[in-house]
What we know:
It is built from 12 helices and 10 strands. The protein is of the alpha/beta class. It has 3 domains: 6-86; 88-136, no CATH class; 141-337, P-loop containing nucleotide triphosphate hydrolases (Rossmann fold, 3-Layer(aba) Sandwich). A 7-stranded parallel beta sheet has the order 6-7-5-8-9-4-10, sandwiched between helices. A 3-stranded antiparallel beta sheet has the order 1-2-3. Helix 1 packs antiparallel against helix 2 (40-63), helix 6 (159-177) crosses helix 7 (188-198) and helix 9 (263-274) packs across helix 10. The protein is globular and about 75 Å long. It starts with 5 loop residues before the first strand and ends with a strand. The relative contact order is 0.14.
Amino acid sequence: AGPEPRIRLREAPPWSPAPADELERLSGELRLLGTQAGDEETETETARLAVRCEERASALRSLLSPDDETVTWLERSRGGWELKRVPVEAAPLLRPTLFRPEVPATLTSATLSAGGDFSGIRARLGAGEAGEIAVGSPFDFATQAVLVLDRAIPPPTDTSAWEDALPARILRALHRSNGRALVLFTSTATMKRTHARVEPAWEGPILLQGAGLPRDRMIAAMKDAPGTVIFGVESFWHGVDVPGESLENVIITRLPFPNPGDPLSEARRERVEARGGNAFRELDLPEAILKFRQGFGRLIRTRTDRGIVVVLDSRILSKSYGKRFLASVPACPVEIEDG
């Protein structure tokens, strides 16, 4: 779940086009002013401003005219409400621009493939036929990492029981590593409620995403102060690089399936189901596995790193799809906790 509510707009809202009209009128006046100014510098600057007005007018008209190829929603932010619109599928836009036959393109990432299979990302990006290479990890996960799975914790589908069990499980995991942990959540509300119960019971520093400290400063604080614990959501699942002893424990509180209320995920799910497909198998599961791999990847950043990844979602053992999550990460010793 996102930090703020999102309201999907399925039809064009009854808003006036007057702001876009005014922007276009202003653009014309700026261009006229530039030609009458008599000097090149003024003409260049007014032309630049005119283009900006035209771009904003075009964007505004686009936002107010939803179609089948895009999804539009209102999202609340700290400054008020934001109107957002994105394409449902990226492939139709990328195929004729990025993946043209006459222009080579190279894509690299640690999480492009799923079990060595690149077909999913090719279809999603519109890459078509492409050369593929999967390079093995330089790290020895068999000796550097341990995966800890909690079989006894209630499943997250039993929300109340699962949330009630989380604080004690997290504290137990924190004691194993003397803090030095990144605790990953999929819901801001769950993170805040859990933090409120864990922080009074833990003697070391715990940094909560959204409590005022920017993400980069939270990461810097973890590097500088041994034992620091970070509670984070979306942006902490990827792009966090804390090598060494400062991070020896990644706690994944829940398998990161997409939020069913997210407008973009909802639109993609509707499209798959409209053609008779299975949205869970084709969209939700691959996306969750990709994000799970990204979260797992926060632990081992160098050849000398050591640590554990703790998964507090029993579905990884009780559901048939759990095997796909386990197969998606490097082989390493597995511990199963039954109490």
